[in-house]
Input
Amino acid sequence: LQQEAQAKIQSAASLSELNELRVLYLGKKGPVQELMKGMKDLPKEEKPIFGQKVNQLKQLLSSMIEDKKVELEKKEMEAKIENEKIDITLPGRSPVLGNAHPLNLVKQELEDLFIGLGYQVIEGNDIVDDLYCFERANIPKDHPARDMQDSLYIDQNTLLGTHTTAIQMMVLEKSAPNLPIKVVCPGKVYRRDDDDATHSHQFMQMEGLVIGEKVTLSDLKGTLEFMAKKLFGQDRQIRFRPSYFPFTEPSVEVDVTCHICNGKGCPTCKGTGWIEILGAGEVHPNVLKMAGYDPEKCSGFAFGVGIERVAMLKYGIDDIRHFYTNDKRFSETFKRFD
Ligand code: PHE
Output
């Protein structure tokens, strides 16, 4: 039996054949097991010797099978490697490259620009507390901006952020009373607007906030002029027009000289030579006070720019809805900006 099994195991050509042999010889119904069972009929004094011999046989066959298994596995692996030869002369398959969304391009450009000026980038959530979106931004309960028509409330105290000012109010509270603060906060904002070529119920903003000792409107002007030149070209100039925001005093609206006609007047700027790009101002003392700062000891500016608006101007896009329809013919246009 031993010789027969040894010969068969030696000549097994595959792992499955070897496994069959293992079952055949060492399995429950195999000869080794049979020998074990037969032991009970032997005279008492022969049992130990017989048992020992059967066990030796069993161990011998097991270890032979084990060795053969290792050998066969190695062979199979070698065969596999042999067959799997990679032809390194074959040309590779080029992956289909996506391209950055124009809104992300503008967001990235703005972030890079402000990081270069020493700002930190802080992002917030889409859902914000009424406290930070309005109350802390000095927007009293009866202010039209709180009207249900403008805001999308989730419950009494939470809503989809209507402006990234909400993130700034949280940053302000967290930072108090440390100085200086220099942050930009990009984010999505939501308003109850009907969608058309220039309005969307959801869009993106990036807001900047700088608080320090004696930060003035002229610092704001210098910063925004730098931004306008980077975004729209070195020839650009900016101007401030008086405006109103509850969280800034004084408040301004900022225009840039038209990048299409360089201020001469064209359809893009409706013949005025100027294009409005953002709202800004000196942070209102009430806002500083509520966040835990002493308005006697520090001051600052804030500005909020619409990412869609900048992208539309920069790339000459005439309908805000193009950004959201995921039409590849539109998005592929921006490959050249990668
Ligand atoms: N929060 C304003 C808006 O959504 C923009 C703004 C930000 C104005 C900061 C002034 C200062 O329109």
